[in-house]
Design goal:
homodimer; alpha/beta; Nucleotidyltransferase, domain 5; five-stranded mixed beta sheet; 9 helices; about 25% strand
């Protein structure tokens, strides 16, 4: 008989939920407003309501599922089922797993940080499904990530680890949001790429990139579009890829994972990003080709990574 | 009844071995020349001979022990019991566990990289014995380390991970032995500290450090001795501690371990090293005091870490 799991992707605006089978197929999914203003227990009640509605839609009850998993923003102590601190939910020390278990007839409930849970989703059912160990790096407004070793998340004490954007790679370099200077995030986020693109345009009024109209039109795609024809764009792109490679080689040397996964909007560039990046990683990794190669893959689950990863917390 | 384990610390010159009980007490220990020139099987025979002698000395046989663990230099695939590559033994792909099990009446044999195994020893029986998760950094000629999560080693694919000295913290900085520039090792090893001390002396003929006589007399203690009276020594020491803190905060943000352990000769400086280091780590760690603190402790097992950690591979 098939096994079913409820996956919940908890966000500041919406709660997304789904019923997932052991093969990572989403049988049904739906979403409901989070209603943060109702407080922690109010949001838990909304999660329970969504879970019950999903079950009913399939003629199932809580007895028919293995449990419910949640990916949540914030610092999550997964051992204790506790949201230690979640800024954008306004929560501190909310034992959400106990509360949801109580609301859902004693069902088993597990939780993890959303970035970590998305990495787990990719390892169980996404781009790294043929592997057991992966480091996932998401290049967005910031740089986030998750670490999976032997199919299990490495979350750190009280879930405070895996802050993979916050390793200094350029001591004394660009200011980072975390207070330090020169973090990986300050060079490899989409925000950093856009910052450097704008700087190059300002410094070079003759850059073809000005064809886009104004600095406001710059996005993470701009330098990729213009690198083939504009030396200033190429310079920004080369530097971006070199810094990104620097951080990835650091992670390759620390974890020597079976694969590194990249997520986030910049990955839409596909081979234009991955091919030069892989070349640098292969060249700079510790002990060169004496150790196993670390392939760089693009994450593929996109919006469903959170939901599938949450379900995978119970597998 | 007490449980017994054989621990082996395999080096290029000597094989050290001991019988250890489940409390990490060394019942008996001894050593024998490695005799690398006899080749992989010859060295394995020497290990088996030492193990048998240790057992006999206590009136025990292979039936009385839970197994034998080895800490070995090189890249070790612990899952396969294989020494993938060990430069200073001259070995490639030697399935040492199978060979030793055959020589020792089918006994269970496990192996790990020596730096990793020493970290495991410290977590099971040393400075981190009250913790389950620790990152250990050894400040020697180079910078090595080990990662223990939930009481188990994180070794990476084919044992090629945990190269903790080889993360770039200063892009384009000092040349590292691994080929990259600006690695943690190039700033935090005893070698780096001695290099910077000599540079400061050469740059400042008025430095009190010249009291030691010549550059050849410089060691890892010099700047600690002179920092209270010589501004040049203090500058070198402050910079050393800042770079060391930079790398430790990186590891704190990645793993948020329960503790960070420091090993190596520089640690003999005790509080002169740890107090300013801890202050910087507390200040720079991600999210400040919102997350759990990461105390920095000095490793305490010294030469027996390898032997105890090797035994702990079976616990």
């Amino acid at each position: 008989m098939a096994k079913y799991y409820i996956g919940i992707d908890l966000g500041g605006t919406f709660i997304k939920g789904g019923i997932v089978n052991e093969n990572g197929e989403i049988i049904v999914s739906d979403k409901t407003p989070t209603e943060v203003e109702k407080g922690d227990k109010g949001v838990a009640a909304n999660i329970a309501k969504l879970a019950n509605a999903l079950l009913e839609s399939q003629g199932l009850t809580t007895n028919d599922v293995e449990g419910l998993g949640i990916g949540s923003p914030g610092m999550i102590d997964s051992n204790e089922g506790n949201v230690v601190y979640a800024n954008n939910l306004g929560w501190e020390n909310f034992r959400i797993c106990d509360e949801l278990s109580r609301l859902l007839g004693g069902i088993k409930v597990k939780i993890g940080n959303d970035a970590n849970v998305a990495a787990l989703g990719e390892v169980k059912f996404g781009a790294a499904r043929n592997y057991n160990s992966a480091v996932m790096i998401t290049l967005g407004t910031g740089v986030g990530g998750g670490i999976v070793i032997d199919g299990k998340l490495v979350e750190g004490n009280m879930g405070a680890g895996a802050e993979l954007g916050h390793i200094v790679i350029v001591r004394g370099g660009e200011q980072c949001s975390c207070g330090r200077r020169g973090c990986f995030e300050a060079y490899s986020s989409a925000t950093a790429l856009i910052r450097e693109t704008k700087c190059a345009m300002v410094a070079h009024p003759d850059s073809s990139m000005w064809e886009i109209g104004s600095l406001d039109a710059v996005n993470g795609k701009t330098v990729f579009d213009y690198a083939p024809v504009d030396p200033y764009a190429k310079e920004v792109l080369d530097s971006y890829i070199e810094h990104l490679a620097c951080g990835l080689v650091n992670y390759a040397n620390i974890f020597r994972p079976e694969v590194i996964l990249l997520g986030g909007g910049v990955c839409a560039q596909g081979d234009n990003l991955i091919v030069p990046l892989q070349k640098l990683v292969d060249k700079e990794i510790y002990a060169g080709d004496k150790g196993p190669r670390v392939p760089i893959l693009i994450a593929e689950l996109e919006n469903s990574a959170g939901l599938l990863g949450a379900a995978a917390l119970l597998m």
